[in-house]
């Protein structure tokens, strides 16, 4: 009897320990126990507890994330630009005039510096050539095929694996607590919609980005959306709150960016009433990723660093706040 009683006690204790282990499982296990992690958990707990004065109804729990440099890497240049340059090379045999026509000639020579020096006008020519005058389905297929074979020049990973493990955990944590997660990025909306759901669990209708105009027409008896070489929305800086207003229709309560291009999104988010949280990812890890901020040609972060404290924004230090950066290779 005593032995059976002891066995029952041991079994009960084991079940209790197992239950406790699951109940205290860390949803942000790739984050160090830093102030930024504590700020996130503190915010989520207070806005989801019904007896809290800061409670936010589930229908109003909107979280917005920049993509480039926030959810995935952005060095040495934006990945969408690398896609566009690769497309120019792929299309070149049908455009012999590009051998002497800038900025295409510089692309074909591999002179990325000169391409960047061509400025907005040159980049618009490249985007028009590689993103427009095709159906939405054709563009989707082109991007999908590129992602299957293209590799990052430093890590040799597929670009859609250059994502941040701590951010994947954060997205899951927010969704588990009733938040609807959106991408709000300066990148092209049609480009991001190709991979956002599989990569981040964010469906196409929750992606807001820069866009070109489009029209409806029937081609060869088939209805189609045709992408046009005209700008519709630049979803960067002041354009981000406008994009959020037009496509989401609610002011977020949570916003996460990494550059001065996200400044207005965080500013507008945290200016609302009630509990708000704005975060900036500071790239400080030259060993595991890259270290850059004020003088970078990509993802410049200067004004955001200067104003974060007075705005009440949390700065996440990649080197000190994250245990890991990228997920384990698949």
TrEMBL record:
Keywords in alphabetical order: Amino-acid biosynthesis, Hydrolase, Magnesium, Metal-binding, Serine biosynthesis, Signal
Pathway(s) the chain acts in: Amino-acid biosynthesis; L-serine biosynthesis; L-serine from 3-phospho-D-glycerate: step 3/3
Its EC number(s): 3.1.3.3
Keyword Amino-acid biosynthesis: yes
Gene3D superfamilies cross-referenced by the UniProt entry: HAD superfamily/HAD-like
Transmembrane segments: none
Catalytic activity line of the entry: O-phospho-L-serine + H2O = L-serine + phosphate; O-phospho-D-serine + H2O = D-serine + phosphate
Cofactor(s) named in the record: Mg(2+)
One Pfam family it belongs to: HAD
Record InterPro entries: HAD-like_SerB, HAD-like_sf, HAD_sf
SUPFAM superfamilies: HAD-like
Protein name as catalogued: phosphoserine phosphatase
